[in-house]
Amino acid sequence: MTMSAASTLVAVHYRVRPVTDAWILPEVPVPESHPHSLLVRYFVALLEAWAARSGVDAIVASNLALRWHEADPRIGIDPDVALITPPPPDMRELSSLCLWKPGHFAPRLAIEVVSEGHPYKDYRDLHEKYAASGVGELWVLDPFGHGPRALGGPVAIQQWVRREPMLERVHFGAGPVFSEAVQAWLWSEPLRITSDAQGKQLWLTGEEYERTAKEAERASKEAERAAKEVERAKREAAEARAAELEQQLAELRARG
Q: Which pTM was predicted?
């Protein structure tokens, strides 16, 4: 029995040099589209809310410089989103996460949103930098379908997980997929995070939690008012019935 090439899964492991001139970042930042920026801000807000309610000592940064080569700090990467725990001791003045400094650790989770302007790097080159950086888990998200077909794209979710000494790609396709970094499920249609495998316990941003809490409080007060109205209507009906009976008894006494 033979298998076609299309039905065969192939795993490829290879070594890369941890330092290369190709990894030197341009001095001018690359502009991103408005949808790209909105999605990045959304995931920052989601992770900040998760850290707050979970009691995790962490910071969530966007486009924070991640550097691991002290001899040439130009070599590195600026994750769209980075979950860093524990946070560095100098986080109030933090401009770069420099892994050779005391208290500076690689992100537990990094998220990259595939860019329309340069999608090839997100499918071909990005993971090598993150492998060298020591990041614990990497999501490469392509909700807008910019990924090149020549590299297997577009796919909604690429998930890479550190399996020492490698950063291994464990998912390449649609969601849901489980994240070890945040102990939650990542979905692709629509793009969201949930605490359960059924997709019902939706993660909310802090603003969404506050709005939901206010709506719940308002609904509770409305339910309380409605209950009081029902009780008042019952009381008035009982009083009216009692008055009616008294009137009937009075009329009977008058006749008798």
A: 0.76
